[in-house]
Amino acid sequence: MKKILLASAILFSAAAFAQVGTAVKETGKATVETTKQAKENVEAAVTKEPKKTVHKVKAKAHKASAKAHRAAAKDAAKNIGK
């Protein structure tokens, strides 16, 4: 009986750890994308027109990616402990 309880406790703790890991990983990815967005915005501010547009588009792409990673992190955080 003790072995069954121990095995089930290990199984549940491993599942919770995996969910926390996913939330942390997605949060980290969102932070990286936000940093890249800021970098592209700065580059757009200091460059002339042909490349300025390219940097603005890249910044918008990083913003969208960061938003997706934040949403994934939020969903993963909701599933922790379920």
The description of the largest β-sheet is: none
Name the shape in a single word: rod-shaped
- Computed CA radius of gyration, to the nearest angstrom: 20 Å
Structural class: mainly alpha
Distance between the termini: 24 Å
Mean residue pLDDT: 81
- Subunit organisation of the chains: single chain
Helix content: over 70%
Uncertain regions: pLDDT < 50 for 5+ in a row? Answer: none
Along the chain, the helix and strand elements come as HH
Question: What proportion strand?
Answer: under 5%
Number of helices: 2
| SS elements, strand count | 0
Provide structural commentary:
The chain is an all-alpha fold. Helix content is 91%, strand content 0%. The radius of gyration is 20 Å and the shape is rod-shaped.
Layout of helices and strands, plus pairs?
Elements: H1 2-46, H2 49-78
Features:
82 residues; mainly alpha
Briefly say what this structure is.
The chain has 82 residues and is mainly α. The protein contains two helices and no strands. The radius of gyration is 20 Å and the shape is rod-shaped.
